[in-house]
Backbone:
């Protein structure tokens, strides 16, 4: 099933900008004023723009949405809600994130990351408790899934959105040979969205950032005639919880 986000907003400029950003990751988007008009079971996630449409006073409507959406529900705001109100959203309705509407690029990145985690939650087995941060560890690489940050030991890496998504895919399929078609389908959304040259270029760029010797890689290896292998000592990617 193709990924599709429901944006609840009256801000057409926001909708147009966000749609273009999400299309780059092959995530479709539809816009609505009334979330329950849609078949929520078919939605990969919901983004609610509080600056244009307030949450309903009727709590049951939010609870119905939460029970039917098998993906993240994110609140988007421009002015910033009081801390008590934000806490109530998360504690009472089990929503996933609260984003202040400052950068469309950041908003899109958070949506892509949250959707990806939901789509791969069985593999990642991520649990969150209180204010703890979800970390995904593979060898010496540590991925902070809440902040979109990757550390190689004590060194912070600067990854593009595609490189970040590639790395998460490789870690979740550690020690498994992956074809370019599998990589294209997972990262670009389909096998026609990326040519072999594009895939190889992005993987080469990622390798330069995570390997000490990119020409003699120890983690991200090319398996000639088959694809790529992300090799880690512990055969499964693990998650750990660390304080913010």
Residues:
């Amino acid at each position: 099933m193709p990924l599709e986000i429901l944006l609840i907003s009256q801000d057409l400029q926001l909708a147009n900008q966000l749609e273009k950003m999400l299309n780059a990751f092959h995530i479709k988007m539809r816009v609505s004023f009334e979330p329950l008009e849609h078949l929520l079971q078919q939605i990969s996630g919901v983004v609610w723009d509080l600056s244009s449409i307030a949450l309903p006073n009727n709590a049951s409507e939010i609870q119905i949405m939460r029970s039917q959406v098998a993906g993240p529900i994110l609140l988007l705001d421009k002015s910033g809600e009081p801390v008590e109100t934000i806490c109530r959203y998360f504690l009472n309705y089990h929503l996933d994130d609260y984003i202040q509407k400052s950068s469309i690029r950041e908003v899109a990145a958070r949506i892509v990351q949250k959707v990806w985690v939901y789509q791969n939650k069985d593999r990642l087995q991520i649990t969150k408790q209180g204010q703890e941060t979800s970390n995904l560890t593979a060898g010496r690489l540590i991925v902070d899934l809440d902040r979109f940050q990757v550390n190689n030991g004590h060194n912070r890496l600067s990854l593009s959105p595609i490189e970040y998504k590639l790395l998460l895919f490789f870690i979740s399929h550690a020690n498994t040979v992956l074809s370019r078609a599998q990589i294209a389908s997972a990262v670009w959304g389909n096998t026609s969205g990326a040519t072999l040259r594009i895939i190889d270029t992005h993987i080469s760029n990622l390798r330069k950032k995570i390997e000490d010797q990119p020409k003699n890689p120890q983690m991200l290896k090319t398996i000639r005639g088959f694809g790529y292998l992300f090799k880690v000592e512990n055969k499964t990617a693990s998650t750990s919880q660390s304080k913010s």
Summary: The first strand starts at residue 4 and ends at 8. Helices lie at 12-23, 59-68, 83-93, 104-119, 121-124, 161-172, 180-187, 196-210. DSSP finds eight helices and 13 strands in the chain. Confidence is low (pLDDT under 50) at residues 125-132, 235-244.
